[in-house]
Amino acid sequence: MAPKPITSPVPDSWYPTLSVSMLAIGLVITASFFIYEATSSKRNRSLAKELTTGALASFFLGFGSLFLLLASGIYV
Amino acid sequence: MGFWFRLNLLLFAIAILSTPVLSDLILSKVDRLIDLTSQIARITSTLKVKNAGSGLVSEVLLAFLEFQANNLAYLMATTNEGKGKIKNSGVSLPIEVANPKGMPPALSVYSVSLPKALGEGDTLTLDVLAVFTHALKPFPEKITQADIQLAVFQDSAYYLSPYAVKVQSLSVKLPDARIESFTKIENTKTHGSEIKYGPYENLPPFSYSPVVVHFETNQPFAVAQEYERLKFHIGATYRSQNITILNMKVLKVRVNFPELLFEPRYPIFGGWRTAFTIGYSLPLQDFLFESEGKRFLNISFASPMNELVIDNLIVKVVLPEGSRDLSVSTPFPVKQRQETKISLLDVVGRPVVVLEKANVVPEHNQHFQSFNKLAMLREPFMLISGFFFLFVACIIYVHVDLSISKSSASYLAKQQWDEVQATIQQVESIIKQCLAIHENLEASLRDHSRTGDVQACKTTRKTADGLLKEHSKELKPLLAFLQSSPAAAHILPKVEELVAKERELQERLMAKHSTIVDCYEKKLGGWEIENRVAPQQQKVVALRQEVEDLLDYIDEI
């Protein structure tokens, strides 16, 4: 079988755009997480909401920072 | 120098007299071209091999003097099936070191395996390319900067072979400059910068006639003593770095194939050295391929620099983390081993395949392959889990009670205040919901003025009524708690006021709503409705404003 060339699953030209947008979304979710932490009192807090917000924020921040590293030339 | 040659000649004379004929091959025509235009000596021999015996012959032996064989960097033999001028379809034949019996000493013998055995009377054309490093010796060894550089090269005018040669000729190609001296034997001619020896006929096996050529060459002899190539195979692109210690040679820049031109900071004369590093990135799809679930990397082995001799070449291929089943195949033998390298965002380290080879010339710049499999999403997961860990730490910090003394007055007071705050927040949310219901009511009135549907208004009012009753029930225990708690003392009046005002607002709004609905049912005119509703409307607006102010005030505490 003829070998087919491998390319990255995300096109190179998208890296900067993707990194900026993912980081922006991640930071917005982070902000909402901290606002929730600051304004809710001890009894009203719901652990499920905190965890989901944290997980979503870390997902976007993780991918955003990966694309940021790739776009700036540090090919990790 | 002369003595040494004569010694060799003596040895071979003895050898010739005492060696049996090895096989029945005869070389009917041998044309040799020795290219001395650069520091690397390339000898191209075209041999017409004929099987003069009766058996099948499946290999052809090539012999080199031992001192030459030490400098032999690259040996390739191809058969030429095409006729006449079609030279492209040469198939490279496997060559191995051979040790047949009865060979004279001080000879290195290589055996070329033929693709199909040569039968009786058959002929075959073989093209042999032998590349030698360090074969040109500067002579004199030390000169001043103004002198010209002369080099000396030794070889044999007769083709050294275990077989008899019928007709042979040798052509030595020198750089376009002065020829200082060369050995003159019979049939020697010069044509410009080429020396032709031959044709010589009917020579026995192992014939040898030393020739020495002393000539001027203006080529720098760039030798890399240690050359390390580091190839990072990374998720998206492929990066290579070279670290070398050598003399510098300048290259030109061309358009289609990227070529790099660089110059050292100082001109490098003979015996001087410098060290530098080059790094570059290449797009991945030219080199990395996938087939049957494995990936393989197809890259060139040696240096891309022009005419560089490398004494010791180390190639390290760094593969992504998690690669398994590594294997390397090269067209020539190399020493291989594996290491681990820890790099950015690595947990275990990346596997590195290290290949070492001595005495490398540009002919070695061929592709080699390495295979591996890997998992690609490791890095994003590492980053994501890193961030998530931060968030979890935040959550734990907020949830965990870190105070040292759990019975001090200030701690207790703080706790009570926390509870009061929680209650007030709940009260606030309930009141906000009530306000939303008011909005619904007003919206239904506006809808009615559009659609004229009285029933809808009534149903909206009923549901609103029910919800508001529920909310006031919820408010009761919260208010009770606030009344009982001492910490809420200063805020309690405001909260009570808020609740009272909201209730009043409810009543007024309900009254207004029913009035308007009645009017619609009785089909009274617009201005009548306005009249009846006006006083209530004013109060409603005022109350609403007060409620919102109170909410803001409570928020700020």
Automatic annotation (TrEMBL), chain A:
TM annotation in the entry: 20-39, 51-75
Protein name: Dolichyl-diphosphooligosaccharide-protein glycosyltransferase subunit OST5
Keywords: Membrane, Transmembrane, Transmembrane helix
Taxonomic superkingdom: Eukaryota
Quaternary structure note: Component of the oligosaccharyltransferase (OST) complex.
Phylogenetic classification of the source organism: Eukaryota, Viridiplantae, Streptophyta, Embryophyta, Tracheophyta
Primary role: Subunit of the oligosaccharyl transferase (OST) complex that catalyzes the initial transfer of a defined glycan (Glc(3)Man(9)GlcNAc(2) in eukaryotes) from the lipid carrier dolichol-pyrophosphate to an asparagine residue within an Asn-X-Ser/Thr consensus motif in nascent polypeptide chains, the first step in protein N-glycosylation. N-glycosylation occurs cotranslationally and the complex associates with the Sec61 complex at the channel-forming translocon complex that mediates protein translocation across the endoplasmic reticulum (ER). All subunits are required for a maximal enzyme activity.
Chief site of localization: membrane
The organism of origin for this protein: Hevea brasiliensis
Automatic annotation (TrEMBL), chain B:
Pfam short name (any one): Ribophorin_I
Chief location of this protein within or outside the cell: endoplasmic reticulum
Keywords for this protein: Endoplasmic reticulum, Membrane, Signal, Transmembrane, Transmembrane helix
InterPro entries: Ribophorin_I
Signal sequence residues: 1-23
Domain of life of the source: Eukaryota
Localization: Endoplasmic reticulum membrane
Pathway: Protein modification; protein glycosylation
Membrane-spanning intervals of the chain: 381-400
Membrane disposition: Single-pass type I membrane protein
Keyword Ligase in record: no
Function in brief: Subunit of the oligosaccharyl transferase (OST) complex that catalyzes the initial transfer of a defined glycan (Glc(3)Man(9)GlcNAc(2) in eukaryotes) from the lipid carrier dolichol-pyrophosphate to an asparagine residue within an Asn-X-Ser/Thr consensus motif in nascent polypeptide chains, the first step in protein N-glycosylation. N-glycosylation occurs cotranslationally and the complex associates with the Sec61 complex at the channel-forming translocon complex that mediates protein translocation across the endoplasmic reticulum (ER). All subunits are required for a maximal enzyme activity.
Subunit relationships: Component of the oligosaccharyltransferase (OST) complex.
UniProt record similarity statement: Belongs to the OST1 family.
Record-given protein name: Dolichyl-diphosphooligosaccharide--protein glycosyltransferase subunit 1
Source organism per UniProt: Hevea brasiliensis
